[in-house]
């Protein structure tokens, strides 16, 4: 079942080794220049955001186990890919996450409590995307690739690409996993982005597991080569290397903002936790494999670098631990108090302006909720539909 | 200092119940927020639950091995304030509370934390009664399930001795602290039946307490019978579970969570889950219903021909056709001709309950043990629907996803011992049913056919019946009818609806 998509067979951009040392080879000097200017406080910021993202993960997982969240999808192991990528963003750039981009949203400044509204089921989104230039979590696998391609085409048509003004030129990033590359939506997004040369970065975090399906069941070719097939410049980076992810994203964003079109980045990483709190990875993968990746923990390698370069000390670590504890406590306190939004909220944000069909639906729903008699056709059509479904199911059974 | 109770959450999406596998805390223990307190098993996986609060465990409300519905309170935690009940009124709970746990198999880590309930009969409070009802609705339908009794949840935890409390040697040995290691606990040596106070210096007492060792069971080598530090450490070393001698690729899943004896020659595994339910059901059945078993050997060559033909049939192309399918159909036809066998003995009401429906159980060996899910209203199904139902039922059982509701309400069971290459057996009735058919292996054998010796497909059937309501004559006629259909499936046309 082995095909040539694994880590050993494919060139991989790495600037920071698992042992926490900077890579000094000859082949990557262009990327090394991009990180040479990163100041200690910027590296500390990355480290802080990665640690806080992991704490957010742990706390949210516990809250789900305590019955406070309906579901949670942890990002453990993918902090470097997400944080490194997000640090390359400009304020005017816009991101379209999946349901796992907690690190990206941490860097974008979305309140962690707001982020749990969705997982508690008290709100359809949790924040105003325009406030952070970050779309809400998207659960439908891969659909955000289309949203991002469309938004990027809009950016083009607004004339916000290739002006040469760094405060104006805008790029878009969308995030998805290895499993999503099998979805039509992602491939359609790649087609539209490529032929329109839209300013969008496809950031694929290959965490090697589409729930329980390994990447070998999704592709015969390394995923970054998918981008090349659409005519999109593509590369694979070490997704557990925050510096490589930063440098590769920066290059891609510059290409996008200057009118050079889309880029496909495969961040090769590993989902250290479960797919979601409803999943049990012990049923389909080995602890040996998990152990190999635990030794490549993205947070550990950045910490070692910072320690060796004298960028952090014990005081910094203690303060960060306290900050993480405070974050945990705030999440526990505030999440338990989150109340459901009004039931009619779903009708309010579908269209920007009044829409006759949505208004009709809303009126019916309000009457139903109030216990008033509703339109009879609604009530009778449902059982008829159910009956015909049953008939179809039975036919299906006897085929 | 308020008591909070933690209701069992839905840790998946839309799960309705879970089994309490192992408590990681015991009454009186201090707990931190997000500390693991219990391991549960859902239909999907094993899950550890973290504590929502910091405080002290006031009481465990559900026994390990019990399945409870989502929303059921499972633990009470006294939130806020310092831990440690101060040995105030009520802390001197009589030894009787833990007496039922003196059995050595129960002194294993997870069992002993339930000091105070789990073994006594009667005097169940209203709260527990409700819980017990919920349990009987979701677990195996065993009439003899022990009724757990409980202390009132507000009673102070008896197992939190004040630090200076004397060791009450044999009266109420303190529960061994649960070993943090997930597999197995220390097999503790029962305390000798002396009432004398054990002599030891305070640091040694502390060491013993930290290691979860009862000083009363430790051999004292010091002057004047004092237990020394070395004695405690030697005891600890001797009581450590020994790793089993295994070789690569050797998996012995039945030993999981067991504790190896001191000499390494035995492993004690707590009886839980499916094993426990199977045992309860079989004991209940074997010692309440007088079993009679009748046997029949027959030529099923025509059934085998029918199976081969059905395999080629387009209608059956997507479903597995096996002789078991024809046997199931034969049983349903025989039930139709002898409905008295499709019945249940109601001892309490002194009534026989005749069922006008057939919920046909199929015994299935699964990685989790024996389960007997049944096909609801099997008498209404045509052959293809029956085949699909059997395939679904066995696939679900092998995946370990059989729901409790699928295992209740059966009216007749088939156990397909033939798949193991066995000719026949004397099956034990599924509780609440009056008949069970064992379907043996089908082999090519010499057989007199049409007056000549021929090689034919031959099998054995055996039928166990509850003799309280089914007599030998009825059992014999029923079995003969099942055999008649298997000998000549065309008989099904005559008897079918």
From TrEMBL, chain B:
EC number annotated for this UniProt entry: 2.3.1.-
SUPFAM superfamilies cross-referenced by the UniProt entry: CoA-dependent acyltransferases, Peripheral subunit-binding domain of 2-oxo acid dehydrogenase complex, Single hybrid motif
PROSITE patterns in alphabetical order: BIOTINYL_LIPOYL, PSBD
Listed cofactors: (R)-lipoate
Ranges of Pro residues composition bias in the record: 143-164
Keywords (A to Z) from UniProt: Acyltransferase, Lipoyl, Transferase
Composition bias type Low complexity, residue spans: 81-112, 182-194
Domain spans labelled Peripheral subunit-binding (PSBD): 199-236
The keyword GTP-binding belongs to this UniProt entry's keyword annotation: no
Signal peptide: none
Domain Lipoyl-binding residue range list: 3-78
InterPro entries recorded: 2-oxoacid_DH_actylTfrase, 2-oxoacid_DH_E2_comp, Biotin_lipoyl, CAT-like_dom_sf, E3-bd_dom_sf, PSBD, Single_hybrid_motif
Family according to the record: Belongs to the 2-oxoacid dehydrogenase family.
PANTHER family reported in the protein's UniProt record: DIHYDROLIPOAMIDE ACETYLTRANSFERASE COMPONENT OF PYRUVATE DEHYDROGENASE COMPLEX, LIPOAMIDE ACYLTRANSFERASE COMPONENT OF BRANCHED-CHAIN ALPHA-KETO ACID DEHYDROGENASE COMPLEX, MITOCHONDRIAL
Name of the molecule in the record: Dihydrolipoamide acetyltransferase component of pyruvate dehydrogenase complex
Organism in which the protein naturally occurs: Myceligenerans indicum
Lineage, top ranks: Bacteria, Bacillati, Actinomycetota, Actinomycetes, Micrococcales
């Amino acid at each position: 079942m082995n095909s040539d998509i694994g880590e050993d067979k494919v060139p991989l951009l790495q600037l920071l080794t698992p042992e926490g040392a900077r890579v000094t080879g000859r082949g990557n000097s262009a990327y090394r220049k991009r990180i040479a200017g990163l100041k200690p406080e910027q590296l500390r910021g990355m480290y802080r955001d990665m640690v806080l993202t992991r704490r957010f993960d742990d706390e949210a997982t516990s809250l789900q186990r305590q019955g406070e969240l309906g579901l949670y999808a942890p990002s453990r192991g993918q902090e470097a890919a997400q944080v490194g990528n997000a640090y390359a963003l400009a304020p005017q750039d816009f991101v379209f996450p999946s349901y796992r981009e907690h690190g990206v949203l941490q860097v974008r400044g979305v309140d962690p409590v707001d982020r749990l509204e969705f997982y508690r089921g008290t709100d359809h989104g949790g924040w105003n995307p325009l406030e952070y230039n970050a779309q809400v979590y998207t659960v439908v696998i891969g659909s955000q690739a289309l949203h991002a391609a469309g938004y990027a085409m809009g950016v083009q048509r607004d004339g916000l690409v290739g002006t040469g003004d760094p405060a104006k030129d805008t790029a878009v990033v969308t995030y998805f996993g290895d499993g999503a590359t099998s979805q039509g939506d992602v491939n359609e997004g790649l087609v539209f982005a490529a032929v329109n040369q839209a300013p969008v970065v496809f950031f694929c975090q290959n965490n090697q597991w589409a729930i329980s399906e390994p990447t070998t069941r999704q592709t015969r070719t390394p995923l970054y080569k998918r981008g090349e097939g659409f005519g999109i410049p593509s590369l694979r980076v070490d997704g557990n290397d925050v510096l490589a992810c930063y440098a590769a994203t920066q290059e891609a964003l510059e290409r996008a903002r200057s009118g050079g079109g889309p880029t496909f980045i495969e961040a090769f990483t590993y989902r250290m936790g479960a797919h979601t709190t409803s999943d049990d990875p012990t049923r389909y993968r080995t602890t040996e494999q998990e152990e190999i990746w635990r030794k490549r923990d993205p947070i550990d390698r950045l910490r070692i670098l910072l320690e060796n370069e004298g960028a952090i000390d014990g005081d910094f670590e203690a303060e960060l631990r306290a900050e993480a504890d405070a974050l945990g406590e705030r999440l526990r306190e505030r999440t338990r108090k989150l109340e459901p939004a009004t039931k009619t909220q779903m009708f309010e944000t579908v269209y920007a302006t009044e829409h006759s069909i949505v208004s009709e639906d809303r009126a019916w729903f309000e009457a139903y909720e109030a216990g008033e008699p509703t339109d009879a056709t609604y009530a009778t059509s449902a059982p008829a539909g159910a009956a015909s479904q049953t008939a179809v199911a039975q036919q299906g059974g006897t085929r | 200092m308020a008591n909070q109770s933690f209701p069992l959450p839905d840790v998946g999406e839309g799960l309705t119940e879970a089994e309490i596998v192992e408590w990681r805390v015991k009454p009186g223990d201090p707990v931190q927020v997000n500390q693991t307190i219990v391991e549960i098993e859902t239909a999907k996986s094993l899950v550890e639950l973290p504590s929502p609060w910091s405080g002290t465990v006031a009481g465990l409300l559900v026994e390990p091995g019990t399945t409870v519905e989502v929303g059921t309170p499972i633990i009470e935690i006294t939130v806020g304030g310092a831990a440690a009940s101060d040995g105030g009124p009520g802390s001197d709970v009589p030894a009787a509370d833990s007496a039922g746990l003196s059995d050595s198999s129960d002194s294993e880590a997870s069992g002993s934390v339930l000091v105070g309930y789990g073994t006594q009969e009667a005097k169940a409070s209203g709260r527990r009664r409700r819980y017990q009802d919920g349990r009987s609705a979701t677990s195996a339908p065993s009439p003899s399930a022990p009724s757990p009794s409980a202390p009132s949840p507000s009673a102070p935890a008896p197992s939190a001795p004040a630090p200076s409390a004397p060791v009450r040697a044999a009266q109420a040995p303190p529960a061994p602290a649960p070993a943090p290691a997930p597999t197995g606990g220390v097999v503790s040596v029962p305390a000798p039946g002396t009432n004398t106070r054990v002599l030891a210096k305070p640091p040694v007492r502390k060491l013993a307490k930290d290691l979860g060792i009862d000083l009363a069971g430790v051999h004292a080598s010091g002057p004047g019978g004092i237990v020394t530090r070395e004695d405690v450490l030697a005891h600890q070393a001797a009581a450590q579970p020994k790793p089993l001698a295994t070789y690569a690729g050797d998996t012995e899943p039945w030993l999981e969570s067991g504790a190896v004896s001191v000499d390494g020659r035995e492993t004690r595994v707590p009886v839980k889950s499916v094993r426990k339910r199977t045992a309860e059901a079989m004991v209940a059945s074997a010692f309440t219903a007088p079993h009679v078993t009748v046997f029949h050997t027959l030529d099923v060559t025509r059934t085998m021909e029918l199976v081969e033909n059905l395999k080629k049939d387009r209608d059956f192309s997507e479903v597995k056709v096996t002789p078991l399918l024809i046997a199931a159909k034969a049983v349903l036809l025989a039930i139709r001709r002898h409905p008295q066998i499709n019945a249940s003995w109601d001892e309490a009401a002194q009534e026989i309950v005749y069922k006008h429906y057939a919920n046909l159980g199929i015994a299935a060996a699964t990685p989790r043990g024996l389960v007997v899910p049944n096909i609801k209203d099997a008498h209404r199904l045509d052959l293809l629907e029956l085949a699909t139902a059997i395939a679904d039922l066995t696939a679900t059982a092998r995946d370990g996803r059989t729901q409790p509701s699928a295992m209740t309400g059966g009216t007749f069971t088939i156990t397909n011992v033939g798949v193991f290459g066995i000719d026949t057996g004397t099956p034990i009735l599924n509780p609440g049913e009056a008949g069970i058919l064992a379907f043996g292996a089908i082999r090519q054998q010499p057989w007199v056919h049409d007056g000549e010796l021929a090689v034919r497909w031959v099998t054995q059937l055996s039928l166990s019946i509850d003799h309280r309501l089914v007599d030998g004559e009825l059992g014999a006629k029923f079995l003969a009818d099942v055999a008649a259909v298997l000998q000549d499936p065309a008989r099904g046309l005559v008897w079918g609806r």
